[in-house]
C-alpha cells in the first residue's frame, strides 16, 4: 500500500509541468501543500515571483536545530516529440517510472515528502526538527534556494540532505558552474562581396577547435574531485545566408572543481580569443554570464 501511494505521489508530481524556464512552480507547490495538509503536516508557500513559489514545512523534533531535506520542484526543458514514452504521465513499465523529472528530481522530492508523512503517521518525534525545503528555480539560477536563505529559513539548520539523483552514492560536494560568452566582432557586408566585410564565423570556428585542444592540456584531474569539464553549448553567428556575419558568439559551460580552475578557465577563453582575434583582425570580448562557486 505504501509503495502504491508513493508511486501515485510521484506520478502526480510528474503530471504537473514545471519546466524551467518559465517554471510556473506555483501549481506544483500548491499540490505539495495539499498533499502535506491531507497528512496533517502544515506548510508555507514562499513566493519567488508571480506564479513561482517554494515550499517550507516542518516535523517538530525535540531540538529547535533542524536537519533540512531539500529538493527542487522545477525541471529542465523537454521536447516531447523526442520521447519514446509520455513525458508528463508517469508511466510505469517493468518496475521503472518514466517522465520529465522522474529522476531529476521529482523522485527525490517524492521521497522527501513521503519520509515526512511516515514520520507523522508513526508518531515519531525526531531528535532534531526535520525541515522540508522544496525550491523553485534550481535549473536556471538557484534563486528559490537563495530566497529561502535570505528569508532566514536555514538559520537553525545543522545539516542539509539534498535528494538529487546520485545512484544512491553519498556526495559531499558539487562542481562550480561557470558560463562564459566568447564574442567576436567583425564587419558586415553583402554576400556577393565578402572581401569587403570581416566574417566572424571563421575566427569563431577556429576558436572552438583551438580551445578544445588547449583545454585538454591545461586542466588536470584531482583524485578526489575529478576534473573541471568544458562543454561548448552554443555557437551563434550570422543573420542570413547572403550577409557576411559581423558577430559570432560561442557559449561555454565550465564545471569547475576550484576557484583556481575558475580563473584558469577565464584566462583560457580570454587568451585563446585574443590570439585568434589578432590573427583575423577582429575584436574579441569575453563575458561571464553565470557563476556559482564549487
Automatic annotation (TrEMBL):
One of its GO terms (molecular function) is metal ion binding. Pathway: Amino-acid biosynthesis; L-lysine biosynthesis via DAP pathway; LL-2,6-diaminopimelate from (S)-tetrahydrodipicolinate (succinylase route): step 3/3. PROSITE patterns: ARGE_DAPE_CPG2_2 (PS00759). It catalyses: N-succinyl-(2S,6S)-2,6-diaminopimelate + H2O = (2S,6S)-2,6-diaminopimelate + succinate. It is an enzyme of class 3 (hydrolase). InterPro entries: ArgE/DapE, ArgE/DapE_CS, Bact_exopeptidase_dim_dom, Peptidase_M20, Peptidase_M20A. GO terms for biological process: lysine biosynthetic process via diaminopimelate. It holds the Pfam family Peptidase_M20. Its EC number is 3.5.1.18. Keywords: Amino-acid biosynthesis, Cobalt, Hydrolase, Metal-binding, Zinc. Its cofactor is Zn(2+). NCBIfam families: DapE-ArgE. Belongs to the peptidase M20A family. This is Probable succinyl-diaminopimelate desuccinylase. It comes from marine sediment metagenome.
Amino acid at each position: 500500500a505504501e509503495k502504491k501511494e508513493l508511486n501515485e505521489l510521484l506520478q502526480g508530481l510528474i503530471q504537473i509541468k514545471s519546466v524551467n524556464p518559465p517554471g510556473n512552480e506555483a501549481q506544483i507547490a500548491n499540490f505539495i501543500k495539499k498533499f502535506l495538509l491531507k497528512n496533517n503536516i502544515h506548510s508555507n508557500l514562499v513566493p519567488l515571483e508571480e506564479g513561482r513559489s517554494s515550499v517550507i514545512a516542518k516535523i517538530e523534533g525535540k531540538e529547535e536545530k533542524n536537519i533540512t531535506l531539500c529538493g527542487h520542484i522545477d525541471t529542465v526543458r523537454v521536447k516531447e516529440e523526442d520521447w519514446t514514452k509520455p513525458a508528463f504521465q508517469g508511466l510505469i513499465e517493468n518496475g521503472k517510472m518514466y517522465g520529465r523529472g522522474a529522476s531529476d528530481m521529482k523522485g527525490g522530492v517524492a521521497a522527501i515528502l513521503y519520509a515526512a508523512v511516515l514520520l507523522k503517521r508513526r508518531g515519531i518525534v525526531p531528535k532534531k526538527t526535520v525541515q522540508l525545503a522544496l525550491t523553485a528555480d534550481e535549473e536556471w539560477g538557484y534563486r528559490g534556494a537563495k530566497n529561502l536563505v535570505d528569508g532566514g529559513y536555514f538559520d537553525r539548520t545543522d545539516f542539509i540532505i539534498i535528494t538529487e539523483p546520485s545512484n544512491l552514492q553519498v556526495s559531499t560536494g558539487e562542481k562550480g558552474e561557470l558560463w562564459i560568452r566568447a564574442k567576436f566582432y567583425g564587419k558586415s557586408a553583402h554576400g556577393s562581396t565578402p572581401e569587403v566585410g570581416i566574417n566572424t564565423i571563421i575566427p569563431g570556428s577556429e576558436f572552438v577547435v583551438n580551445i578544445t585542444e588547449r583545454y585538454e592540456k591545461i586542466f588536470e584531474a584531482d583524485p578526489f574531485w575529478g576534473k573541471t569539464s568544458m562543454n561548448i553549448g552554443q555557437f551563434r553567428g550570422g543573420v542570413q545566408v547572403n550577409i557576411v556575419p559581423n558577430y559570432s558568439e560561442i557559449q561555454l559551460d565550465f564545471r569547475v572543481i576550484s576557484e583556481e580552475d575558475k580563473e584558469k578557465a577565464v584566462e583560457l577563453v580570454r587568451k585563446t580569443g585574443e590570439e585568434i582575434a589578432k590573427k583575423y583582425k577582429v575584436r574579441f570580448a569575453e563575458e561571464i554570464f553565470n557563476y556559482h562557486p564549487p
